[in-house]
C-alpha cells in the first residue's frame, strides 16, 4: 500500500514539474491581465505583425483628437489638470513610465496619468489622460480609452 501511494506521489510530482515552463502555464499568466502587447511573439512572426493583428498601436503612430471630440468626462479631467485638482481618485497625477514607448520619449518623471471617469463603471475604468511636462500644463497630453494600449494626441 505504501509503495502504491509513493508511486502515485512521484507521478503527480513529475506531472507538476513537467508542466512548468510550458505554454500552458504562460497562457494562464496572460489571462490574468497581460495585454496583447505583452504577449509572447511566435517564432517567425514580427512584433509589428502582432501589434497590427491585435489592434495595438505601433510605436510612433500617434493620431490626433481635438478637445471637442473627446468625451465630456475627458474635458472635465483636462480642466482639473489645468486647475491642479482636486482629483476624484488618489491615483490621479501618478508617474506614467511610458515603458511601451508609445508616446514620445522623455526623461523619467515627464509624464503623469489621470483618470477619465467612465459613466456606469464601478471602478476607475480604462480611460486615461497622460500629460507631459510641468504639472498644470495641458499642452502635451494624450488620451487613451483602452488602458494605455493606444494613444491619441490631444490637439487644441
UniProtKB/TrEMBL annotation:
Signal peptide: none annotated. GO terms for molecular function: hydrolase activity; RNA binding; RNA endonuclease activity. Residues 27-55 are annotated as: Disordered. Keywords: Hydrolase, Nuclease. Residues 44-55 have a biased composition (Low complexity). Residues 27-38 have a biased composition (Polar residues). It comes from the Bacteria. CDD domains: RNase_Sa. This is Guanine-specific ribonuclease N1 and T1.
Amino acid at each position: 500500500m505504501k509503495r502504491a501511494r509513493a508511486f502515485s506521489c512521484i507521478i503527480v510530482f513529475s506531472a507538476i514539474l513537467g508542466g512548468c515552463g510550458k505554454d500552458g502555464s504562460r497562457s494562464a499568466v496572460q489571462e490574468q491581465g497581460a495585454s496583447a502587447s505583452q504577449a509572447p511573439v511566435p517564432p517567425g512572426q514580427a512584433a509589428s505583425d502582432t501589434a497590427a493583428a491585435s489592434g495595438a498601436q505601433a510605436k510612433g503612430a500617434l493620431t490626433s483628437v481635438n478637445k471637442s471630440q473627446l468625451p465630456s468626462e475627458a474635458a472635465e479631467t483636462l480642466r482639473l489638470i489645468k486647475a491642479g485638482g482636486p482629483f476624484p481618485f488618489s491615483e490621479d497625477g501618478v508617474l506614467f513610465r511610458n515603458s511601451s514607448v508609445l508616446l514620445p520619449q522623455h526623461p523619467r518623471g515627464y509624464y503623469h496619468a489621470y483618470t477619465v471617469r467612465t459613466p456606469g463603471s464601478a471602478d476607475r475604468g480604462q480611460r486615461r489622460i497622460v500629460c507631459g511636462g510641468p504639472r498644470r500644463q495641458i499642452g502635451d497630453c494624450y488620451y487613451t480609452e483602452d488602458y494605455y494600449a493606444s494613444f491619441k494626441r490631444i490637439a487644441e
